[in-house]
Write a structure and sequence with these properties.
single chain, BirA Bifunctional Protein, domain 2, eight-stranded mixed sheet, globular, alpha+beta
Length: 276
């Protein structure tokens, strides 16, 4: 592994990674960036980030594969460290959602559009010809505790340069959306700054309330009837426990990430994002 120090690597603007203030490590090819960071997590500096051009064993939620052509996606994992406490352990499920919000914000800034939404619990999606398609996925992995800190690896995979022939059904890319000029370096830098800013407010009293409001404003399927984890209902929103709330026959249904063993599908029955 080599820490990127030149402006030439993956079209990185000069000084872009150095200005972040933590190591950004480029691995040309790997099994997965999650595997790489897992080897370093106990000694690594907070926010250490590993990204790659190609990974041959990338993983999504529930052990699904994440596949991408060489250099066509942003594939990265960052080390998130938070002070250990009973409350912090209860809130670990928020970290992937905060990561998704950070990526959504970065994409909106770089594309100049507000079309990107969050699909609970871990995707960034966009409407294409009336269909919700997956652009990016987030995967969190709890590593352990070191010196009073909880340490989590948060992986991100975002489709950038794929054309329609490269994409799986139910997915899309920035190129397909008409913004192929955005580089991996620009997106990674902007995403990490957004993520750091949001996590920097972790201990503020109103932090969760602010995040919940932001997330529900951007929540895909809100107000629509869907089926998830065998439950069918109208999406109300995400609550303070990072769980999804549905309404069916005037009865509230709570779906947790532990319950989510099935894909979210619209009531029409069309499966969305089969590679999520």
């Amino acid at each position: 592994m080599a820490i990127l120090t030149t402006p030439h690597a993956v079209n990185a603007p000069a000084g872009s990674f150095e200005a972040l203030g933590f190591p950004v490590i480029h691995v040309p090819e790997t099994s997965s960036t999650q595997n790489n960071l897992r080897e370093l997590w106990a000694q690594a500096q907070p926010w250490t980030t590993i990204f790659t051009d190609y990974q041959h064993a990338g993983r999504g939620r529930l052990g699904r594969n994440w596949e991408s052509g060489r250099g066509k996606s942003l594939l990265a994992t960052s080390l998130v460290c938070i002070p250990d406490s009973v409350e912090a352990r209860k809130r670990l499920g928020w970290i992937p959602l905060i990561g998704a919000l950070s990526l959504q914000s970065a994409l909106s800034q770089l594309t100049g559009t507000t079309q990107f939404q969050i699909k609970w619990p871990n995707d960034v999606v966009v409407k294409v010809a009336g269909q919700t398609r997956k652009l990016a996925g987030i995967l969190g992995e709890y590593y352990g505790e070191v010196d009073g800190e909880l340490r989590v690896g948060l992986g991100v995979g975002c489709n950038l340069h794929q054309d329609s022939l490269d994409l799986f059904p139910g997915s899309t890319s920035l190129a397909e959306l008409g913004t192929p000029e955005i580089t991996r370096a620009d997106l990674l830098t902007t995403y990490l700054r957004e993520f750091q800013t949001r996590m920097g407010r972790w201990n503020e009293p109103d932090h969760l309330g602010t995040i919940v409001a932001e997330l529900n404003d951007l929540l895909a399927y809100r107000g629509q009837e869907i089926t998830v984890a065998g439950q069918t209902g109208v999406v109300i929103g995400v609550n303070l426990d990072a769980n999804l709330e549905l309404l069916a026959d005037d009865k509230q249904i709570i779906v947790t990430t532990e319950d989510l063993a099935l894909h979210i599908t619209e009531r029409s029955g069309n499966e969305q994002n089969p590679r999520s």
